[in-house]
Amino acid sequence: MASVIYHPAYRQYSFGEHHPFSPVRVDMTLDLLRELGAPVRPIAPEPATREEILEVHADYYVRRVEALSAGEEVPDARDYGLGTPDTPAFRGMDEAARWHVGGTLAGARRLCEAGEKRVLQLGGGLHHARRNFASGFCVYNDLALGILALLRHGLWVAYLDVDVHHGDGVQQILYDEGRAMTISLHESGKFLFPGTGDVHELGTGVGRGLKLNVPLEPMTEGRSYLEVLDAVVPRALERFRPGVLVVQAGADAHFEDRLADLMLTTRDYEAVFRRILGWADAFTSGRVLFTLGGGYSFRASARVWALLYLLVHDLPVPAEIPEAWRERWRAAAGEELPARFHDPEPSGEAVANRDEITRRNRQAAERLLEAAVPYWGGR
Amino acid sequence: MLVRDIMRRPAIAVPSDTTLEAAYRTMQREGIRHLPVEDGGRLVGVVTDRDLRLATSALSPSPRPPSHPVADVMTRNPETADPEDAVEDAARTMRRKKIGCLPVLEGGRLAGIITGLDLLDAILKMTGVDKPSGRIEVRLADHPGELARLTGFFGERGLNVHSILTHPETATSVRVVLRVGSIETRRLAEELRVSGFDVVWPPEKPWPR
């Protein structure tokens, strides 16, 4: 009832040993699931072709990625976001990025052609990539390409981005698309990269009112996060009536994340994922495609994504993390790994101005709905 | 940022014998509230939608008919701006005089106009995000070379600084808000602290990681 897409070639998408977007995060996830007695038996995708990439990305951009990938000098690479501290060039980067796109496209095909309901792509989620600009570790936008593939099959898409960063690349590429709704919950751009994702970014043309953003206060905790999620998403899905959900399941809204400032625990992530599966059942006949995304705490990401796998397969969530796994990955993670699957409940002392944060987040959701709902009238 | 960069051009103007009704219709048609008044290529006044409303109001002691000329209700010898004026100078003039627009004169001729809304657009442009970037906020001692040391930190790392806003905080310190072309603002903040900078955002997390 669920398909998993993965290929070891995804590991080639690596910007170097000390770069946060590390393939070790997925290695740890796969190994954790194996230790838990739920070994992943993935479907192997093909890398996307150059022609497939060109559906979204400009030829002059792809040529530069290819040249850098072949080890050639590209003097103006930085004008395209390539060869920067965030997204350094590396040999084979074009093919590595095409593998991740290929995985998301394979996921889209499972839904359309094989009639699969739940697909988990254990890679991709490169939501910052623009048509002609690499950004925030993302070279090719597998999500936009996957969504366009689903649209070609006649399925309207609701894209939900729970990565802690705004899903700016996906939003921008689909900004005037009337058959795709994008919803991003993220730490406010006033504080966090990439800076966009304000409530007034609503789309253009026939896409107007279909690009939804809920900017959240730093230190937002699970309770407030779930409140605004519940206030916005079911209402939007009910009106839009998509044929499929595409979910970017970044794990970096977790409180231990090294790049951001939200406060979700693994229990909050479980609640988020369970809701999404429920909304898929309620609005899209169960059809949902998950990708991975950001997530820069080894301790958190492996558990969040193992959790996602277990929930997608309707498997129980164990209480303990196997000792063998903790031993094996401690050195690679550079820190002690947790003994329990779920985080301890937060003590409640960490967030001093909780009421104010809750109020501000509620206000953001209200302002969003106030601005967007009038565009839903004709639907 | 200069007045030249944000002014509307050309300014829509009317002669001083224009009737109140015609001026009203021009404002309605163009979606504007301020009309410079020109005679023989010379600016002689400014008439606003407020002037028209007050002049024709039943509450006025002597309401003017729609056929009355604007010469009678306009502000004569209005404040003006030069295209090379700094935007903040124009803003200061408008604030001090409590007026909504400044006609812009170049060589004695009307070259454009700026209104309060144009100033708001300038603020949005200066604080806006047009490239993917992260926010870093630093408290600097108000000493020569401090800002150069800060921007040098990013230059050395090959990082683009897309915008910088500074404002005085105390007599001896300024707050600097940078938008930097990187997702890794937390790591940069750590390195800035190691280099002795007082980083306000992003803050250190209150728990060990």
Q: Might you state the CATH topology name of chain A?
A: Arginase, Chain A
Content of β-strand of chain A: 5-15%
Q: What's the β-strand tally of chain B?
A: 9
Mean pLDDT of chain B: 94
The CATH architecture classification of the largest domain in chain B is: Roll
* Pair of chains with the largest interface and how many residues each contributes: A-B, 30 and 23 residues
Number of strands of chain A: 7
Distance between the termini of chain A: 32 Å
Number of domains of chain B: 2
Structural class of chain B: alpha+beta
> Strand-residue fraction of chain B?
25-35%
CATH superfamily of the largest domain in chain B: CBS-domain
Backbone CA Rg of chain B: 24 Å
- Rg over alpha carbons of chain A: 19 Å
Structural class of chain A: alpha/beta
How many distinct domains of chain A? 1
- Reported by name, the CATH topology of the largest domain in chain B is CBS-domain
Helix count, DSSP H or I runs of 4 or more residues of chain B? 7
Q: What profile does the largest beta sheet of chain A have?
A: 7 strands, parallel
N-to-C order of helices and strands of chain B: HHEEHEHEEHEHEEHE
Which architecture name of chain A does CATH use?
3-Layer(aba) Sandwich
Outline the structure in words:
The complex is a heterodimer of chains A (379) and B (209). Chain A has 11 helices and 7 strands. With 379 residues, chain A is an alpha/beta fold. Chain A has one domain: Histone deacetylase domain (Arginase, Chain A), CATH 3.40.800.20. In chain A, strands 1-2-7-6-3-4-5 form a 7-stranded parallel beta sheet, with helices on both faces. In chain A, α1 crosses α9, α7 packs parallel to α8 and α8 runs parallel beside α9. With 209 residues, chain B is α+β, with helices and mostly antiparallel strands. Chain B folds into 2 domains: 122 residues, Roll (CBS-domain); 74 residues, 2-Layer Sandwich (Alpha-Beta Plaits), CATH 3.30.70.260. In chain B, the strands form 3 sheets. A 4-stranded antiparallel beta sheet of chain B has the order 7-8-6-9, covered by helices on one side. Chain B has a 3-stranded antiparallel beta sheet with strand order 1-2-3. Chain B is elongated and about 70 Å long. Chain B starts with a helix and ends in an 8-residue tail after the last strand. The mean pLDDT of chain B is 94. At the A-B interface, loops of A face α7 of B.
